[in-house]
Amino acid sequence: MRLILEFLLYASLIIHIILLAVAVFRVWRGENVVDRLVGVDLVSTLTLAMLVLIALILRDSIYIDVALGLGALGFVGILVLSKYVADEQMF
């Protein structure tokens, strides 16, 4: 059972890495600012998922703490960027 779980964790980590590459490409070659903003949000979400998978693989909870902090910063960052895109001013 443990072997199957490890295989699935590694397989899902590889899938997330591939999806992260696609999202980074979308940020790099996005047609407009909104596409790039959605791509940045997706990169943040995939990075969170990868950190949780790494925490499960290595059995170390520090990666989950880092993922929680990154999630909070990513949420605030996306809110600020979307307000800037909508109003063309920061505050």
Blueprint of the fold:
Elements: H1 2-28, H2 33-58, H3 62-87
Helix pairs in contact: 1-2, 2-3
> Which class best fits the helix and strand makeup?
mainly alpha
Query: What oligomerization state is this entry in?
Result: single chain
Q: What overall form do the CA principal axes indicate?
A: elongated
Helix content: over 70%
Strand content: under 5%
Give the biggest sheet. Answer: none
Low-confidence stretches: none
- In round numbers, the mean pLDDT is 91
Overall number of domains: 1
Question: How many distinct helices?
Answer: 3
Number of strands: 0
- Rg, Cα atoms, Å: 16 Å
Q: Would you mind describing this structure in some detail?
A:
It is a single chain. The protein has 91 residues and is an all-alpha fold. It has one domain (2-87). The protein has 3 helices and no strands. The longest helix is centred in the first third of the chain and has 27 residues, at 2-28. The model has no long low-confidence stretch (mean pLDDT 91).
List keywords for this structure.
91 residues; mainly alpha; 87% helix
Concise description?
This protein is an all-alpha fold. It has 3 helices and no strands. Helix 1 packs antiparallel against helix 2.
